[in-house]
Structure formats: C-alpha cells, structure tokens
Amino acid sequence: MRKKLFLHIGLPKTGTTFLQCQLEFNRDKLRSNGIYVPKIGQLVGRDHNLLALALQPERWDQFPADISARLPSLWHDLLEEIDNCGYQTILVTSETFSWELKTQEQIKSVRDYLVNYDVKIVLCERNPYDFISSMYGHLIRTGRGPYPLDSFLLEFPYYWSAAFQKKRWGEFFGDDNFILLSYENIKGEFILHKFLNALFPGHAILSEIFDASPDVDPNLSLSPRFLRFMEELSANRIDGAPYVNLYSEVLNTLVPLERQMLSPADIDEAMKRCGMVFDSSNSTASKMSHPREQAGLSLEQMGKDLQDRTQELVDTRRTLVERTERLEQASKDLLERTQELVETRQALLERTAELVDTRQILAERTERLEQVSKTRRIDCTMPKKK
To answer: What would the pLDDT profile of 95-105 be if each residue is shown by its tens digit?
Structure first.
C-alpha cells in the first residue's frame, strides 16, 4: 500500500512557526498515533525549509558549508528516511514551498521526488489585506531596509492567493489533492488540534491532549509608526534589533494604537499603482488580477511569454557576443593590414630614395659622358700638325 504524504506548503504568516513548534514538541504523540514527521530537511528542528532550498542550487553558496554539503542529496535522504520509518502517514511542513519556489520546474521536481506516494498539498490562506500587511512588515523587519510596498507587490504577485497556489500545485498533484485551510478558522491556542482535524477528520490523534511548546517565539507585528522608524534605521545602517526587543517589551504592557501595519486603503492604493486589484466577487483571499490577465492572458501564457522573451534575450546576447568577437577579429586584422601597409609604404619610400639617388648618379654620369664626347669632337675637328 502506498504511503500517504501530507505536504504543508504555508502560507507564511498563517501561524506556521507556532504550528511547527507544536508538531515538534508533540512528535512522540503523533508517532504513537501513526503520523510521522521526518527529521531530514529540517533547518531549525521544526520546519523542513531545507527541502525547498535543495531545489535552488544557485543559492547553496549563501549558506554555511555544513548545510550546503547536505543539500545535493537531501531529497534522496528524505525518501530513504520515509521508506524506512515504518509509518504509513507522513507530514512534511515548510512555508518556503509556497513562497520561495518560483518556477513550475521546481514544483515538478517535488512531484517527481514524491511520485511513489499519495500526496496531499495543504495550504492555509489568510485574509489578503492582513497577509500583505504582516508579510510586508516581516520583510522590512528582517533586513529588506527601505522597501516600498509597490516593490513587494511586484516581487511576489499572486503568491498570497489560494487560487494561484492551487493552480501551480494542482497542475502536478491534481486539484482533488489540494486541501485549503483558513487561518482565521484555525489560529489561536488550539491551532495544532484544528490543523490535524482538517487533515485527519475522525482520527484517533484528535483525542490526544497536546502539550504547549515552551519555546515558541511568536512573530512580532509592527505598527506603522514603528515600521517607519525601522526603515529609517536601516537606511542609515543602524542595527534595529535592540529597538525591536524594546518594542516587544512594550507590547507586553500596552496595546498599540495601530494593530495593523497597513490599512486596506493603503494596500488598495499600492495595488492601483501596480495595476492590480482584488476580485471582490470571490472570497477575501481570491486571486489577484493583472492588466495582462485582464487582457485575456493566463498565468501559464504569461509565464510562457516570459520564457520566450528570456530566450530571445539570451539569443540576442549570444548574437551580440559573436558579432563582437567578429568585430574584434576584424579590428585585429585591420590593424595587422595597416601595419603591413605602413611597412610597405616605408619600403616604397626607401626604394624611391634609392631610385632618386640612382637617377642623380646616372644624371652625373650622363653629364660627364656628354662632356667627354664633346671634348672628343673638338679634338677631331682640329687640323693635325705636319
């Protein structure tokens, strides 16, 4: 019988850190109920973020050698662990699957690695206004520095949309294998129980009383005013970590006047500038529309157009390189030919000088011969003495 593998792909900012800490802290209870959370692929002992990184070899040199050395064989090591674990139900969790895998080829690689398992893709969506506000603040707080909201919207178009993620992952795993959760429905102290109930309704694991992880570090949400202060620190290359620590202490004593980093109106204005709008006819986490999509182009067609354009640019660059090489060779040949012509001209000048000298010598000899001839004629015309 094929093993079932539940791949939780995010989204980030939907309680993933808290949920993953709870999964790790209750690992033994999960195993005793037949649910196995692999060790291979975990970066900090709770999430499987290394698995997504292993599909991005262009980034491997950004990490310490001990991590980079594990990445080439990471997926094979994971499959070996799963095959030998003795459990039929596997749970893998990492929000980087939804947020960092940018190409369909990378998602296809995930499918190819997991081809021998019955895979369910699990995505937790969030109200898009809240998500954008929270994720944008997270990127600012973690070192993006001055980073306009417009840049965020253009860098990660559609990624917070459940419809977009379902389209990407459904292409390889099937829409029927896509489980959609709502952050608003599962957030809070009992997130682990609600999460497992959505994945395993009626399962014996739901009768367990889960222990709360003592070392959960909840992500901090910044108010707009503090966020602007952080941006100013970053622009001036000042470490903002001490101020964040002070800010977190303040949150323990009072409630900020502004709970939300950005208002929906702020986000709507930024979307208008970027040519984006929410489709209000669907759910709050509906797919974004873009001018090119409004013109009738699908995401796949947009991606194909981008690939075609990229290939055109690659071909153009190759042609320019070849032409540059030919021009450099022609320039080199021209320089050599010019040098030959200069040397030939010099030789001609020298030969001309020799000819001038020869002509001068001949002229002098001719003049002497004429003088001798004239003298002889005179001698011939004079009478001889008797």
So the answer is: 999 999 999 99
